[in-house]
Amino acid sequence: MRELLSNKDQRHLEFLELLMSGGSFTLDTICTSIQQSVRTLSVDIKQINSFIQPACICTDVNGVYLRLTASGSNREIYNKLLRQSREYQLLVYLFFNNKKTIEDIADEQFIGISTLQRMIRKMNSVLSKRDIRIKRVNSFVQLLGNERQIGLLYIGIFNEWYLDEYGPLTVDEYTVLNQINLKAAEKMNLTVNYPDLKRVTLWAFVRLVRIKNGFASPNSAEGKLRILEEILENQELCNDFFAVFSIPLSEDLLYTIYYFVLKVEFAKNLDEIKIIVAKSKLAEHIDRRIKGLICLMAEVFSISTENTETVYLSIFNTLQLANEPPFILYSRGSVFMRLFRRTNPYIGAQVINVVEKVFGDVTNINALNEMAYLVITHWPEFVQKIQKKAPAVHIGYFFDSDIEHAQMISNIIKRISIVKVKDIIIMATCSNELYKSCKQIDVLITNIPGMLIPDTEVICIQEYPSPGDFSNIIDTIEKIKYKLWSKGKDMNQGSSIIW
């Protein structure tokens, strides 16, 4: 839903994502990339720095780059950009205030009425694609339309708008819903964790508030579900729920707010997948493609398909519930893959290529990145197994200080590198011996400035490596590993590599 942002905010987002890709850039490079003038870019930097604090866009002799605090991340940047957006401020306002006139909103949001009306017209041109519109009903401005799409929209917004535990809920609201969540999970024999609990609570809250405000009605529970009965038998919990939400807790209400967990398309284990597949041609098709994805991934990387139940279940539910919930600005899979591919370019490219081969009809890059994310994070030891198969990078050390110094630096590099390395302390006594020794290595690390060795990467470092030295060494090792691996060394043992 990035298209809901104003033109200025979309430009800011494009600029920030370029910086978040890592490294520093010249002004000319940035202007060419986002097709803006230096003057516009200078103004944008000042505006962006005013709302992303304590993060900062720096401009110095090193170029233009994004500096985050030790406790910050790119996700925080997306959050701050979203929160200052007039359009999304209005949507959040309308969720909690459904009895406000256009004049009330303009006054409370510090915006002119004509400007607000223009903004709503533009927003409706985007929202209408999801069968949603901002309308006036009896003088009140409200968000109306397809309740399922409205629910998904607000889940996406709140998931990125709030980064704390409670989100848009009060402490009392969170406590009551959390109690219901834990009881429901216990009855369904589900092991819950913080991310799952947060998603379920947010979904339940959004559905509950829309029902409470009269925009939606509870669905029929479609017969008695024992899990719902046992929750409703807890009178103290029902009383707490009514005291907090001012609406009685009923079987239909429970079924509605937890519908996406209770409905049959959501599989909680492999046995449930088999039941779903037996009843649905679509599920059968999804099942077949996921199995094909796992088998092809295992073939390309020459690894076993053992212990793939978690990744299989996660991708199945993601495809079954493809649009629940959506992202607004921050696509978890895309952000993960962009950063993963920086440090693991060969593995990242291969994973994406396999996903695209199996799901070639999927044109949404964020959906493809989400599946790649699930493969890497939900397949136990996937990356570790691949790293073990990676060709070793041979590093030579040649220092004019002393051998013990070179050995100490070698030990440090081995500790910080996630790439398999083999090191050689070069004992050459002249340049010819040095050149001959370098034929056996991929990179030479030295403390001697200006050294050039034919066909060998040379990195000159401080007497004790600076942060910049470490970054340079790691980037160079990764680049060499990529070159070695892209030639097919130690990979597939004759199997074709998708490239």
Please sum up the structure shown.
This protein has 499 residues and is of the alpha/beta class.
Give me the secondary-structure topology.
Blueprint: H1 7-20, H2 27-34, H3 38-51, E1 56-60, E2 63-67, H4 74-83, H5 86-96, H6 102-108, H7 113-127, E3 132-137, E4 140-145, H8 147-161, H9 171-187, H10 194-212, H11 226-232, H12 235-245, H13 251-257, H14 259-262, H15 270-279, H16 281-301, H17 309-320, H18 332-343, H19 345-358, H20 365-378, H21 382-389, E5 393-398, H22 403-416, E6 421-425, H23 431-438, E7 443-446, E8 457-460, H24 467-486
Parallel strand pairs: 5-6, 5-7, 7-8
Antiparallel strand pairs: 1-2, 3-4
Helix pairs in contact: 1-4, 8-10, 9-10, 9-12, 15-16, 16-17, 16-19, 17-20, 18-19, 18-20, 19-20
What does this structure look like?
The chain has 499 residues and is of the alpha/beta class. It has five domains: 70 residues, Orthogonal Bundle (Arc Repressor Mutant, subunit A); 60 residues, Arc Repressor Mutant, subunit A, CATH 1.10.10.10; 92 residues, no CATH class; 118 residues; 97 residues, Rossmann fold, CATH 3.40.50. It is built from 24 helices and eight strands. The chain has a four-stranded parallel sheet, sandwiched between helices. The C terminus is likely disordered.
Q: Keyphrases for this structure?
A:
499 residues; alpha/beta; Arc Repressor Mutant, subunit A; two-stranded antiparallel ribbon; 24 helices; 59% helix; disordered C terminus
- Helical content (DSSP H or I, runs of 4+): 55-70%
The tally of beta strands, per DSSP, is 8
| Whole-angstrom Rg | 28 Å
Number of domains: 5
Strand content: 5-15%
Q: Which spans have pLDDT < 50 for at least 5 consecutive residues?
A: 489-499
Strand order of the largest sheet: 6-5-7-8
Separation, N- and C-terminal Cα atoms = 32 Å
Task: Supply the helix-strand structural class.
Answer: alpha/beta
Q: Determine the mean pLDDT.
A: 86
Q: Output the number of helix runs.
A: 24
- Sheet having the most strands: 4 strands, parallel
Coarse shape: globular
